[in-house]
Amino acid sequence: MTSLDNVSTEDLRQVLAEVEGKKPSQRLMAAINYLEEDGATLQEVAERYGYTAGWLSRWLDRLERLADEPFEEVVYDEHRSGRPSKLSDKEYERFVEALHKSPEEVGFDAPAWSVPLARHYLAEEFDVEYCERHVRRVMTEAGLSWKTARPEFHKSDERAQEAWQDGFKKKRDNLDDEYTILAIDQTRQVLSTLIYAWFPKGERPSLPVTGAWDSIKLLGAVSDTDETFFLPCKENFNSDTTIRLLDALQTEFGEKICVVLDNASYFTANRVQEFVEDTPIELCYLPRGSPELNPAEECWRQLDQSLGNRLFETLDELRDAALCALDDINVPDVFTYLCP
């Protein structure tokens, strides 16, 4: 029986989303239908598209090459890489230079380049009309690739940060000398992850990893007396773990604590507010999207740096290594972050 041993239906669907033209789309859809329908014959599937079983068999064999070749070389009848360019050499250089800038820098209200946007730019700037397939090829030759962008989370307005810092300075001045200033934050360390490592050139190394979703959870605090406090958590972060941390901080630093923290739901929960209501604890919530104001983030940065290139087989090993690394961190000065 004809089959695709090295190409999945998901691979075919991804290619289908990229191709242009009726014929290539039909060929891919026929292959997908045949692979997904148990018991369907080549003849039955091919007839839906007005072709013979031999036609579909040849296309299944040809699509097998998708495992090793660019899809343009496989699904189209004719490779057009020799098509003459309508851009002069200087215009091509200008186009490539533009692609390596953000669209805003060349006058477009868009966060990133897309094929239709690049095609529009060619028409507007150079009076050149290319089909999307050719534009995609030029973008690839220019060193761009299609990938998912990482989300960029909201950042607080600088004025909001400055206003918060001014307010915090006034609040600190009104606290009596018995108060300890603490900044708290949370982190997760996932079992068996690698950030960077050294490997021989030309190799694509792999390492055995187990329990990729297992993690340890830590709540941490940095004080204005250059001390740190870290609390491992078995459960997910919630209002109970926040209350447990605040209680532990009072035991460690005294009843009067002024705690700086972010706006995570488990920090702002009603149960947390009720817990501190009848205590001398003061809570100071940072502006949203302002991790750079929290000195505890520096502790996590140093922790990530220490653990990033190491592989751990069990959560106990990871927890022990994390706590050991946190004992050796350079404690950040809280006021450098909170009110410089």
Automatic annotation (TrEMBL):
Domain Tc1-like transposase DDE as annotated: residue spans: 192-319
Matching Pfam families: DDE_3, HTH_33
Lineage: Archaea, Methanobacteriati, Methanobacteriota, Stenosarchaea group, Halobacteria
Protein name: IS630 family transposase
Residues annotated as domain Winged helix-turn helix: 111-166
Organism encoding this protein: Natrinema soli
InterPro entries: Homeodomain-like_sf (IPR009057), RNaseH-like_sf (IPR012337), RNaseH_sf (IPR036397), Tc1-like_DDE_dom (IPR038717), Transpos_IS630-like (IPR047655), Winged_HTH_dom (IPR025959)
